[in-house]
Amino acid sequence: MDDPDAMRDVDDYLRSNREMWDEWADLHVGSEFYGVEAFLAGRCALNDVEVRELGDVRGKTLLHLQCHFGLDTLSWARRGARVTGVDFSPRAIAHAEELARKADLPARFVCCNIHDVPQCLQEQFDVVFTSAGVLPWLPDIER
User: Is 90 contained in some domain?
Assistant: First the structure.
């Protein structure tokens, strides 16, 4: 993008979007909709189609883009993947790390804008995953 006004608009969008997701992370982690207590008791947060399409992930490295507060990421860890979750919300990442501790699941969570992942993470992954509903939040789908 060469237009400074357009760049400023994207920066403003990203900032306000991140602030909103910080607030939502705090709300979502305690909501019945996400079912954190059921997850901690053993429920899998993944949809059947996700499990079926990705298949056996045991021993594979899995990068979860836009992981929010980590329920799906940690569900992949329970299925045997070595997981890394990325989200641009510092509060979501903090909740994900706390949830991993509570669930006693190995996971790494990285606070990073999805467009900056190649600079934040240098390694390659066997599987890159993102769940339904994340694409509308991206300001530049082609990038």
Answer: yes
DSSP for 22-81 reads HHHHHHHHT-TTTTHHHHHTT---S-HHHHHHH---TT-EEEEES-TTSHHHHHHHHTT-
Residue 24 CB burial class (10 angstroms; 0-12, 13-18, ≥19):
middle
Q: Examine residue 139 and state whether it is found in any structural domain, yes or no.
A: no
Residue 111 lies in a domain: yes
What SS3 class is residue 82?
A: strand
Tell the burial category of 93 from Cβ atoms under 10 Å away from its Cβ (0-12, 13-18, 19+): buried
> Would you say residue 140 lies in a domain?
no
The pLDDT tens digits for 27-49 are 889 989 899 999 999 999 999 99
